[in-house]
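Try it yourself: sequence plus 5-O-phosphono-beta-D-ribofuranose, in.
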Amino acid sequence: MNAEPLIGIVMGSRNDYAVMKGAVEVLKEFGVPHEVRVVSAHRTPELLFEYADAAMGRGLRAIIAGAGGAAHLPGMLAAKTVVPVLGVPIAATALQGMDSLLSIVQMPKGVPVATLAIGAAGAANAGLLAIAMLATTDPTLRLKLVEWRAARRDEVLGQVVGEDE
Ligand code: RP5
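Structure, out:
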């Protein structure tokens, strides 16, 4: 994307991209300018602080942050910027994403992270939620989102189940 990014997509490891690409695909589909970065809370804390400090000034309207394990990334970003942070828990350990979900959703009162589902559904929904946020002030995007939802509705209305399947 050449336009200045409105949405930042960050993740704790390159390995998280298999999941986080779901958010990228949705933003691409809607033509929303975005950027993708690897920023690790525990391995690159200085970069995390730099990214969060610059986010508002760079015009980011939301940050989608995915991480696995003891997932500090979304919460630490939210602690350092008032740009809304959408957290995506990733199944990266023996706990299958429950660790990450609880780390992200259980933010103490005062510093919220909007927490999505574990994995691919959460990543795609984070993209859609970011779009819905932008759509509150962008009528063209709002129309696209309404049409997108209508297409999903029509898809279900067209489904038929044969009793003998
Ligand atoms: C977290 O640790 C990352 O978000 C990733 O989900 C997990 C494992 O990282 P790698 O060892 O795969 O780089 O920080």
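One thing you can check immediately is this: The pocket of 5-O-phosphono-beta-D-ribofuranose is lined by residues 11-13, 15-16, 40, 67-69, 90, 92 (CB under 6 Å).
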